[in-house]
């Protein structure tokens, strides 16, 4: 990916597409700040200072968005802003009606959506730093490698006594021991972008080094993190991409081989329990939660359309106490989103992901790059994994990807291209 398009000589490329050595200041800023924008520490309360900083980071960085006021309007700005306003305000008003919450208490239940604002603050940061596409890609790849290396190191040196079998209600420890064995609860945002990037390189360049990167990242996800949702999402993206990139004749073979390969993978160890209804998978809790949620929504169209909100932790109560049973909206994924935000809210959440996919298609017509492709793959991963892990738990991941797409679009000058033909700038490897 070092060849510039034939209709765009290297000297004519915008600065964002130029290669060369990375600037240390830009790289250090990206590597230090991206983990916070990517919500790496958002659910790791064991690292309390970083956890607290991650929770406050959406508010701390919001003033950066003021820089956007002097710029022409960016793509997706209205959709992101209106989506955020709807998702925060509507369930907050609904909770006042259905759960007798005060408005100011109920709105605190939506702090999990604040990372959506990273679209504006991270975009503003990119405009300040002006990184090249190569520098952006390298920063993501470096962070992915750091997280993978850290997980391997912890897996090798942490004693078995550190893994907890029991823990406080609602607080999952960093080191967990359950029916899946010892596992480490870690955000895999950067490792998966690294994995998808390496898979693209391995497939198109037939490079064993990139294939090794895929295998290592995959092994860490399946054998150390051990998340069923992640396993489904990863394998789904790899199968979809392999089928899409294969020659027509090869696709026939893949149709025969893929089901056998997937059945083999998901018949081993804890992966065999992904579709199990056994108690060790939490299926009973999910089934009862789904029944309670459906019963509460009832036959009232307004509840289904606009949602009923939720009970804020700040009120001292919980949905578990309200329903007298373990009840977690995250466990019932899209039904939980419909419960809290309504069908309209669920559609808004879905449209944020789909907008990123469609916008990438426009961007790829102008600049084709494996790193941008890996970000696109991650959006597909979010949709596939959303049946087990709702996207409302880490909306900052999508917001950062959308901000990168929009930054490259604006920095590449594609807003004002007079020539309707696309050119392809293939950029140096991160």
From TrEMBL:
Keyword DNA-binding in the entry? The reply is no
List the keywords (alphabetical): Ligase, Membrane, Transmembrane, Transmembrane helix
Q: Is the keyword Ligase in the record?
A: yes
Q: Name one GO molecular function term.
A: ligase activity
Q: Which domain of life is it from?
A: Bacteria
Q: Where does this protein have coiled-coil stretches?
A: none
**Regions that span the bilayer:** 50-68, 80-99, 111-129, 141-162, 182-199, 208-224, 230-246, 253-277, 326-350, 371-389, 395-412
**Entry protein name:** Lipid A core - O-antigen ligase and related enzymes
């Amino acid at each position: 990916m070092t060849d510039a398009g034939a209709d765009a000589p290297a000297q004519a490329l915008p600065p964002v597409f130029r290669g060369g050595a990375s600037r240390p200041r830009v790289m250090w800023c990206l590597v230090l700040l991206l983990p916070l924008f990517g919500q790496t520490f958002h659910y790791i309360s064991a690292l309390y200072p970083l956890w607290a900083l991650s929770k406050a980071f959406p508010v701390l960085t919001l003033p950066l968005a003021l820089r956007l006021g002097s710029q022409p309007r960016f793509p997706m700005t209205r959709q992101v802003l209106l989506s955020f306003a709807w998702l925060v305000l509507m369930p907050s008003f609904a909770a006042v009606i259905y759960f007798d919450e005060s408005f100011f208490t109920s709105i605190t239940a939506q702090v999990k959506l604040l990372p959506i604002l990273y679209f504006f603050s991270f975009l503003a940061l990119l405009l300040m730093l002006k990184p090249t596409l190569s520098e952006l890609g390298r920063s993501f790849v470096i962070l992915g490698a750091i997280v993978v290396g850290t997980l391997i190191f912890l897996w090798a040196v942490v004693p078995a006594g550190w893994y907890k079998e029991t823990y406080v209600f609602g607080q999952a420890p960093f080191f967990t021991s359950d029916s899946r064995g010892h596992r480490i609860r870690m955000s895999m945002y950067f490792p998966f972008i690294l994995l998808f990037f390496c898979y693209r390189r391995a497939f198109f360049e037939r490079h064993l080094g990139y294939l090794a990167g895929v295998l290592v990242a995959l092994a860490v996800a399946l054998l150390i993190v051990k998340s069923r949702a992640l396993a489904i999402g990863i394998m789904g993206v790899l199968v979809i991409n392999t089928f899409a990139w294969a020659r027509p004749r090869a696709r026939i073979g893949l149709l025969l081989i893929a089901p056998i390969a997937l059945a083999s993978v998901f018949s081993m160890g804890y992966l065999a329990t992904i579709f199990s209804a056994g108690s060790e998978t939490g299926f009973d809790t999910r089934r009862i939660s789904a029944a309670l949620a459906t019963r509460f929504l009832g036959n009232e169209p307004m509840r289904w359309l606009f949602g009923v909100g939720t009970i804020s932790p700040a009120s001292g109560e919980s949905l578990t106490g309200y329903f007298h049973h373990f009840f977690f909206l995250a466990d019932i994924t899209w039904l939980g989103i419909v419960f809290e935000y309504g069908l309209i809210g669920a559609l808004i959440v879905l449209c944020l992901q789909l907008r990123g996919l469609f916008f990438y298609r426009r961007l790829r017509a102008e600049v084709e790059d494996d790193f941008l492709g890996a970000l696109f793959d991650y959006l597909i991963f979010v949709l596939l994994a959303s049946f087990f892990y709702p996207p409302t738990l880490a909306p900052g991941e999508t917001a950062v990807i959308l901000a990168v797409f929009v930054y490259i679009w604006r920095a590449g000058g594609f807003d004002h291209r007079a020539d309707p033909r696309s050119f392809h700038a293939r950029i140096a490897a991160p």
